[in-house]
Amino acid sequence: MYIRGIYVPQFVALLFWVVVWEIVGQFELLMLFPPFSEVVVAIGDVVTSPSFVDAAALTAYCYLAGLFLAVVVGISLGLLMGLVPAADKLLNMWINIFLSAPLSALVPVIMILFGMGQPTVIVTVFMFAVWIIALDARAGVQHVSTSLKEMALSFGASRTQRLKIILLSALPEILAGIRLGVIRGVKGVVIGQLLVSIIGVGALFSLYSQNFLMGHFWALILILFAFALSLAELIGRLEQRVEYYAGARH
Amino acid sequence: MNAIAQAEPSATVAGSAPATPIVRTRGIHKVYGGTVHALKDINLEFKRGELTSLLGPSGCGKTTLLKIIAGLLEPTEGEVEVNGKPVTGPGPERAFVFQDFALMPWATVLRNAAFGLELQGVNRSEREERARHYVNEVGLSGFEDKYPHELSGGMRQRVGLARALAVDADVLLMDEPFSAVDEQTRRKFQEDLIHLRERENKTFILVTHSIEEAVYLSDRIVLLSPRPGRVGQVIDPEIERKGDPDAIRRAPEYLDLTDEIWRGLREYVE
């Protein structure tokens, strides 16, 4: 970004709000907003505490398990819908409903079904991430060029070989879906744990807010944001590599 | 002189050696969705070693006919024979060159060119050797490790051609292969195709909407009329193609025939 012709890096915007936060915090107007410096100090505190290490490990496990399931099921669903029109008619409406529905409202139901522990959190992550992955995979499969499919057929490709070509052609869309799923999954893991609120990061959030440790509370939020953004960035990098190859799809 | 013959299966040009038909279509009808009559009663013979163009305005079903010969589409009625055997689907004796190249964007030039052989289960070193030969043949040596997006449209179509040549099919089916490249590239490509035919003993069936291209390249031109697509006329241009390819474009036979076909097709364009 340029201000009066001078190049200003993007993170300056971030810095600006950090400074605003610090100033507002210093006035001690609201107990909810400790100064940013206090939050930064608290990050060190939080990260080194044993309860955080436990919570992080549990959160990571639930998140990765749920995301893995979502990727596998999502891509399979997307493939099925992209290839079989009957399956598409049957499923598309439901997937769109789940995609736009406020899933947080479903978590209590999931809790009743799966109990107050890890399975509920895993299922919540899954429910948050799977639909967008399925829809993007479906779009990818439907946009595979007809001539590429005909090419495979005319040179005598078997069913498996044709499926492989379809998958590779749809890879850019599939990866875009996974990137969105990764971000939605973080929402899922946090919301799931908050509502269950006796395990993982959710338990920590309750602990900090009940004891008015607002610095720690914000520190934890910053850590989660950083985690979600770095993951999304990582997938984004991978995506760029693939887009690069698929950039000229014809 | 141009010998103009009607659509009779056995019409051969006086003076040229009679060649045996390699592809034969019998009473091909194609109806889309019960109402759109795309092709009507197509009876044609394509002779071994010849280049035949299917020429006609858009909507005349020329690509449909080519895809039926390729086995990618099924005719509503009638049958196609290749080497005397009825066609039930794609086969190794036919190779297709696509209008939009149909290259795999994730694979290198060499792997794209070798893809037909890969599908046939030829081992890696052998198929790469053969692909390398044909990549060289179409004038792309040095580009083996490039990806399709790094090539121009014309170069991408050369890869498509190398892929079709590498499987060593008897018949090359080309669906408007030069329509997606610019004019200069198209001309160079047409000249190269004439040279290629001198080296490779193959039968070519070429779909085109360009009268000049058809006259320039073909031993035989099949004119299709639109809606429903029927064989309007079969023309055997007698144009000497040995020597300077540029001279063809100035030859009176070339210019006369181009004009004549245009006069015939004009009515469909209105």
UniProtKB/TrEMBL annotation, chain A:
Transmembrane segment boundaries: 7-24, 60-81, 93-114, 121-141, 189-209, 215-235
Cellular location(s): Cell membrane
Record key words, sorted: Cell membrane, Membrane, Transmembrane, Transmembrane helix, Transport
Entry GO CC: plasma membrane
Membrane topology, record value: Multi-pass membrane protein
Domain ABC transmembrane type-1 span(s) in chain numbering: 56-235
GO-annotated biological processes: transmembrane transport
PROSITE patterns (alphabetical): ABC_TM1
Matching InterPro entries: MetI-like, MetI-like_sf
Pfam families (alphabetical): BPD_transp_1 (PF00528)
Protein family: Belongs to the binding-protein-dependent transport system permease family.
The protein, known as: NitT/TauT family transport system permease protein
From TrEMBL, chain B:
PROSITE patterns given in the database record: ABC_TRANSPORTER_1, ABC_TRANSPORTER_2
InterPro entries xrefs: AAA+_ATPase, ABC_transporter-like_ATP-bd, ABC_transporter-like_CS, ABC_transporter_ATP-bind, P-loop_NTPase
Name the record gives this protein: NitT/TauT family transport system ATP-binding protein
Keyword flag Signal: no
Family stated for the protein in its record: Belongs to the ABC transporter superfamily.
UniProt-listed PANTHER family: ALIPHATIC SULFONATES IMPORT ATP-BINDING PROTEIN SSUB, TAURINE IMPORT ATP-BINDING PROTEIN-RELATED
Span of domain ABC transporter: 23-251
Entry keywords, A to Z: ATP-binding, Nucleotide-binding, Transport
Annotated GO MF terms: ATP binding; ATP hydrolysis activity
SMART domains (UniProt xref): AAA (SM00382)
